[in-house]
Amino acid sequence: MKTVECKSCKQEIPLIDPYVQFKCPDCGELIARCEKCRTFGHDYTCECGFEGP
Ligand SMILES: [Zn+2]
Ligand SMILES: [Zn+2]
Questions:
Q1: Which of 3, 15, 25, 44 is the most buried (most CB within 10 A)?
Q2: What is the spatial distance between Cα 1 and Cα 49, in angstroms, rounded to a whole number?
Q3: Ligand 1 mean position to 11 CA, how many Å?
Q4: pTM for the full model?
Q5: How far apart are the CA of 18 and the centre of ligand 2, in A?
Q6: H or E element at residue 44
């Protein structure tokens, strides 16, 4: 099954699950976050070092 990695909790998210994907405002890299991390507003760090939200 195809998965994406949540940038916050590093869990694999099955593509059938609800998740959000957006581009890093700094480097444009795609960032995925699972529904849980989005709901609780967990931090994430992009490969470029950008920290969000
Ligand atoms: Zn997550
Ligand atoms: Zn970035």
A1: 44
A2: 29
A3: 6
A4: 0.85
A5: 22
A6: strand 44-45
Residue 31 Cα to ligand 1 midpoint, Å, equals: 11
Beta bridge partners of 22: 31
Q: From 50, 18, 48, 1, select the one nearest 32 (Cα to Cα).
A: 18
For the chain, what are the domain ranges?
Answer: 3-52
pLDDT attached to residue 28 = 97
Ion ligand 1: protein residues whose beta carbon lies under 5 Å = 6, 8-9, 34, 37
Each residue's pLDDT tens digit, 30-47: 999 999 999 999 999 999
pLDDT, position 21: 95
